[in-house]
Amino acid sequence: MDLVILAGGKGKRIQHLNRNKPKPMVKIKDKVFLDLLINHYSKFNFEKIFILVGYKSKIIKEKFDGKFRNFVNIECIQESTPLDTGGALSQIKNKIKKEFILINGDTFFDINNIEKFKKLNSNSNVGCMSLTKTKKSKNIKFNNLILDKKGYVKKVDKSPYINAGVYYFKKEIFSFIKKKKISLENEVLPKLIKLRKIKGKYFNNFFLDIGTPENLKYAKKILPKKIEKPAIFFDRDGVINHDKGYTYKFSKFKFRKNVINALKYLIKKKIYIFLVTNQGGIAKNKFSIEDFFKLHKKIKIKLLKKDIFIHDIEFCPHHPDGIIKKFKINCKCRKPSNMMIKSIEERWFYKKKKSYFIGDKITDKIAAKKSNLKFQFVEDDILKQIKKIF
Hints:
Strand order of the largest sheet: 5-6-4-1-7-12-9-13
Radius of gyration: 22 Å
Distance between the termini: 35 Å
CATH architecture of the largest domain: Alpha-Beta Complex
Number of strands: 19
CATH superfamily of the largest domain: Spore Coat Polysaccharide Biosynthesis Protein SpsA, Chain A
Helix content: 25-40%
Structural class: alpha/beta
């Protein structure tokens, strides 16, 4: 399954507050709004993230195109002429294999169970959409919605429920979309509702829209507070898993005692989980970046089945004694440098004073100290250790 982000609009109402950048590139304090969206969704098991860009697309493409986040590759798709929210989707018809989650690039909706959301689908539907309550429904393009007894979306004269901007679609949706200027909210969705082709689910999760000056001002004030949490940074080998040297095969990857339970505990306590790991075996040609990605995608799937999220990860493939030329460097990211920690800090709101780094080497301790993070060497029972911290 893929993730698709609609990010092509001009955002006319907030342009004067956004220095004429694309709307999703607006800053929330010192963080880019689109970064915050990608943070939230890349922890799920997506094959790829497609960002549909239009207005001043170069700004988004320079930051995200060809990059990856949490082992999910990102590709920006640019429209040649303005196609609106519906027509923009037509561009990925041949890139989507089977199904995808679609989100608006100007709304934040704290949905944390994508799998349960997609299970609302049946053979007769093309997908399902999220509904939520809000007192500011006048600013939302598609409002006054309810669900009938069978869970299908209905448009009514008055309802506090609005479109929350998160959808699950099967590939059949493309039979309702042509490569022309067409609005998803004003044309495609009303047709699907009339034909009883789309179901929905009520959510009471945190929701905000940044499309107006009033809403943007509110978002800048409230969003950091809503998503800022304590974090725990882990080294990987010797901390999360048994370190037997250059672990890159899933069959050889063995979690240390009580690590799974410790991660479950952290999720329950609403603590961000970050990994920062030196992987010099890539530079030494012991395994490839592709091997590393393959391993972590399998780890990700295993943990997701237990409702455990690794929120973000940074790794260093370099080593001064490497044999692969492009990785044989004295880099700024390899611990004891703290560049990997800094990279995560640039993207995430987290409570540094309440956060920790757990590692097994002096290089971990030095990197933590450089970032003003409290540090502990990993103990035999990591669950007991973490319960003492949080």
